[in-house]
Amino acid sequence: MLRQLRTGLRTGVVTEPALGTDSVPFEVVGARLREEIHRRFKRSLHIRQVDAGSCNGCELEISGLIGPHYDFERFGLHLVASPRHADCLLVTGPVTLNMAEPLRRTWEATPDPKFVVAVGDCGRDGGIFRGSYAVVGGVSRVVPVDAIIAGCPPSPAALLAGLLAVISQRP
Amino acid sequence: MIVDFLAAVVQLVLVALGAPLLIGLVRTLKARLVGRRGPSPWQPYADLRKLLGKERVVSTTTSWIFSVTPIVLAATMLVSALIVPLVISRPALGFAGNVIVLMYLFLVATFFLALAGLDAGSAFGGMGASREVAVAALAEPTIVLAVFALAMRAGTINLGGVVERVSADPWLALAPGHLLAFAAFFIVMLAETGRLPVDNPATHLELTMIHEAMVLEYSGPDLALIEWAAAMKLFLFMSLLANLFFPWGVPTHTTITTLAAGAIVLGAKLAALAGLLAVMETAVAKLRLFRVPELLAGSFALALLSVTSMFLLR
Amino acid sequence: MSAITYVLAAIVGLAAGVTGVMGMLGVGLTCRLPALLPLGGVTLVLDPLAGVFLAMIGVAAVPASLYALGDTRHTRRGRTAYLLFVGAMAVVPVAGNALTFLLAWELMSLASYVLVVHDRESREAVRAAWVYAVMTHAGVACLMVGLLLLGTWAGSFEMTAWRAAAPSLLPWPRNLVWTLLALGFAVKAGVIPLHVWLPLAHPAAPSHVSALMSGVMIKLGVYGLIRVSLDWLGEGPPWWGTAILLAGAVSALVGVLSAIVDRDLKRVLAFSSIENMGIILIGLGAGVLYQAAGLPALAVLGLTAALYHAVNHTAFKTLLFLGAGAVVHATGTRDMESFGGLIKRMPWTAACFLSGAVAAAALPPLNGFVSEWLTFQALLQNLLIERPAVNLVFALGIAALALTGGLAVACFVRAFGISFLAVPRSDAAARAHETEAPPRLAMAVLAVACLALGLGATAVVPMLAGVGADVVGVVGALALGDALVLDVSGNFASLSMPVIAIALALVGVGVVGGLAVTGRGRVRSYETWGCGRMLQTSRMEYTATAFANPFKRVFGFFYRPVPQIDIAAHPASRLFVQRIEYANPTRSLFDDWLYRPLLTGVNRGVRVVRVVQSGSANLYLAYILVALLVLLVLA
Q1: How far apart are alpha carbons C312 and C443 in whole angstroms?
Q2: What is the average pLDDT score of chain C?
Q3: Does pLDDT of A171 surpass 70?
Q4: pLDDT class of A22 with cuts at 50, 70, 90
Q5: Residue A102 to chain C, least CA–CA distance (Å)
């Protein structure tokens, strides 16, 4: 216990500054709620991550956001367990057939105002699984998507920059 | 008279507005200790403000109990804020209650929150409710014995009386019985406010949740009230720890200057306790649920030792 | 036709209540009818303590009779027994001599036996009535021997004579009489380990009868204990108080622990009655200990706490049993695992049951909390007795009471939450409907009474303290604060329930107003969050058994559960599991360690003695001859 405290205090804060939004493969789909999102969620955004059949590559990158190097909590972003607590659904995966209905129910369970960010090439249009018999092909086919952060997988820095751009925060 | 009313308002405002800051401070300190920059201590205010503007999604299986619970929680915490000696030793409603009333007011909140958890009809809610009432029940004997230890010396269980008795004799706070009772009460605080090692407030795994599991159904302003009430509960428990066991600096007369001084002293003590809590939460891992009764039995043993020690050293 | 009996019972109850209040306020009455019966005749004496228990009968009998008005299934035998039951219970507190007391007591026991066995077809009811009859008559036997001995040693069978002769009794006769009488009263009060009849008889009886049995009859055991420890035998040694306090602590814990794991709603309430009797006895034991230590003011405090909790328990337990009766009637079963969602189908019953549950869990601002708080105050001042052994007993009592309080909250979250909330777990619960007007009125009256007894503590406690002072023999009123605040022992502790209740209400309104200002209006209905699962049924809900699981684990040394897992696999391969049945029943410590060995021993003894009853007429004549010769020699 003491050793861990000593290491923590000696190492200090290792958080890196976040990237600017220019160098990020990020796309906003439609101007829906743009003003409202900026007004409401600029200081505090609660995110519920939904795995709609992804290979978990994007999940590993998202979990990098929680760690000390990328630390998205310093910007007021926070991961939550229940969609009822969430403002934003961060959806990964090409949306397999089995996950289409649960994804839709998760979206319905989230209170308004809410928005959806699709992560990765799979989330955009099915990625390398596009055209498969087992996938729907992109999150936008199941729930309305407001932003897409492309990449296979997108790096944590890109994810962070993308999320910050959605809520119009300057890092 | 005016000053008394002002004191009541100051206490209420301090608890209502200071509680989110306390939670934010603990979070920031925990983050720094593990090498993260962490959220700002003012983050909970932004969270609550955002939640107030959101929609309420109410489950079809729930009843009026689900809707009433957040209000009951907020009301019990705010009323308790007027009973606990925060900035003065004799707060506005101090005559109306004492530590036992306080503990049972907290139990009212637990009762309704557990019912709300069951109301949702989900497995998570029932599980959270069952675990929460089990932990609360096992923490009760420790609290009352700790109160008994304090009452032994003070001759009263009125919070103001205890504070004044120890204030009159400052070295009393370092008596072995007192310190043992503090340790026992600290463990109870961890259990009742859902902090590590009893419950992890930041967990996402439902099977490890106790308090979080009961609030998974809540959204919008209801959730804001519940989070706020939980923050106030932590604030009140920490203030009890600070002011009952180390009442140095709690004024006994009510004037404007003493109110300000009392508030500053309370802020300093709470900051110190928040630091202690952050260090503790970073250093220990969450206990397996069925090991928690062992921890609470340990705190009961500490309380029993404290009573014995106070008795023998009368 | 049937309504008349219940109306009569309600009138008897009301009369008892009014007389009781008069008695509490100091009106004393004596009524002697020596010619009515041989062996001393009938004597009726009304004094403050009797008044309290008569008032309790009023509080319970009127709503219970009102509830029964709505039920047409009762037989004439049941209705007559009910009226006799209420009448006999009203005579017990005012009995002034041994004969009246025993007659009324026995009549009460017999009438309740008839009521418990009302459904002769049910094996469970017959067994429950049998156990009840045996236990209660074992108690009556102790009472009879005790009262006969007391009467012989005191010179008369009138209670006033006992009080006068008490100081002149030697220690060993006094202790013997106390032990016998305390045992007899303890059986009636359901004190561990003599409680085995309670969880069998209360669920088997019809609900209005259960309400009266739990609400009043077992209190008469407490009445007897108060009389014998503080009144009839004068001042006793400290071990009486210690025995009562420890018995109370054990009863409270065992009662609430047994209540948490049971799935029969009425049995949960029966065990909760045992728990509350334990709390009452903790207060009484503290009072008796203070009296033996020469601290009359604190003795009055302990006794007041015990009486107050007794009155409160009558109010909320009657309410809970009537509510449970409504639920059982609507669904046709007592099993909590079949309930659920009843709050939407029986809203009135649910609201009343919730008030009863909050009161039983001893939560502010209702009445259960105030009396438990008062009991704590009586216990916390024990340092004024300067004996470490006694202080240790008090510390154990404090810890037991605190743990009981916490466990009671868990018990009633489970009882109300599983029965009334969420989704129905069976078709019976889905088809349930609200009860008729009389039961609803009865429950509403009791719910209001619970609130009034809690908020009006500053009015009730001085009255009960007066009764306590009369019993203990303290002259002059105790200083107990003013109309708003209850002050205990000077500035040891103070409580103001009305202030707290008003503060809660005002703050609650303020919070609602604040939310309205910030726009709380938008509401949307959607299904419960189940991880996006396709099917949300009642099988996803928590069950009563699951809710009790943490307690079964923590207190496993007491419950000694025996897990039974039954796995049914597909006939083609044992790897394809089709069905799993899991049961985790608890075992009763007292059945296994006390009653089974005792009964086995008795059976063995009886088998040996049976040789005497050979059936031969010649042998019986020989017995008579021998007995005659022996008596002639002795005379």
Answers
A1: 15
A2: 90
A3: no
A4: low
A5: 4
Domain residue extents for chain A: 21-166
> Residue type at A66?
I
The yes-or-no verdict on residue C250 having pLDDT over 90 is yes
- Cβ-Cβ contacts under 8 Å, C341 against chain B: 61
Residue A111 is nearest to which of B34, B38, B54, comparing CB atoms? Answer: B54
* Vertex C512: Cα angle to C509 and C518 (nearest 5): 140
CA of B34, closest CA in chain A: separation in Å? Answer: 5
Q: Please judge whether A82 and C533 are an interchain contact, meaning their C-beta atoms are less than 8 angstroms apart.
A: no
* pLDDT for the residue C519: 66
Question: Residues C503, C548: one domain?
Answer: no
CB contact under 8 A, B111 and C554: no
CB hemisphere CA count around C246 (13 angstroms)? 12
In Å, the largest CA–CA distance within chain C is 100
Question: How many domains, in total, are found in chain B?
Answer: 1
Query: Apex CA C302: angle with CA C462 and CA C154, to 5°?
Result: 100
Predicted TM-score of the model (pTM): 0.94
Is residue B137 within 8 angstroms of chain C, CB to CB? yes
Q: Is residue C251 part of a domain?
A: yes
Domain that includes residue B199, residue range: 2-312
* Residue C524 sits at the chain B interface (C-beta within 8 Å): yes
* C-alpha separations of C198 from C60, C121, C201, C289, C560 in Å: 18, 20, 5, 28, 21
ipTM confidence? 0.94
Report the DSSP pairing between strands A77-79 and A45-51.
parallel
Q: Alpha-carbon distance C380 to C394, whole Å?
A: 8
Question: Which residue in the block uniquely carries the two structure tokens 């009973």?
Answer: B83
Query: A-chain residues within 8 Å CB-CB of C524?
Result: 111-112
For residue B267, pLDDT over 60 is answered with: yes
Q: Which of B228-242, C120-134, C580-594 has the highest mean pLDDT?
A: B228-242
How many CA atoms, within 13 angstroms, populate the side-chain half-sphere of residue B270?
27
Q: Do B38 and A85 touch (CB under 8 A)?
A: no
Contact between chains at B38 and A74 (C-beta distance less than 8 A) = yes
C266/chain B closest Cα distance in angstroms: 20
Let me know if residue C557 belongs to a domain.
yes
Residue-level pLDDT at C61: 92
d(CA C76, CA B9) in angstroms, rounded, equals 64
Distance from CA of A127 to the nearest CA of C (A): 24
Chain A residues in contact with C522 (beta carbon < 8 A) = 112
Q: Do B104 and C373 touch (CB under 8 A)?
A: yes
Question: C602-612 burial, b if ≥16 CB within 10 A, otherwise e?
Answer: eeeeeeeeeee
Distance CA B140, CA B106 (A): 11
Average pLDDT over all residues of chain B: 90
Asked if pLDDT for residue C350 goes beyond 70, the answer is: yes
Q: Which of C520, C522, C526, C536 to mutate to test the interface with A (most CBs of A within 10 A)?
A: C526
How many structural domains compose chain C?
Answer: 3
Vertex C32: Cα angle to C27 and C35 (nearest 5)? 165
Full domain range(s) for residue C621: 594-634
CB atoms within 10 A of CB C432: 24
Put the strands of the sheet holding A77-79 in their side by side order. Answer: A26-28, A147-149, A115-119, A88-92, A45-51, A77-79
Q: Tell me how close the Cα of B212 comes to any Cα of chain A, in angstroms.
A: 9
**Domain end residue (candidates: C478, C500, C515):** C515
Please name the chains neighbouring B, where neighbouring means 3+ C-beta pairs under 8 angstroms.
A, C
Whether pLDDT at C478 is above 70 = no
Q: Are residues C599 and C577 in the same domain?
A: no
Domain A21-166: assigned CATH number: 3.40.50.12280
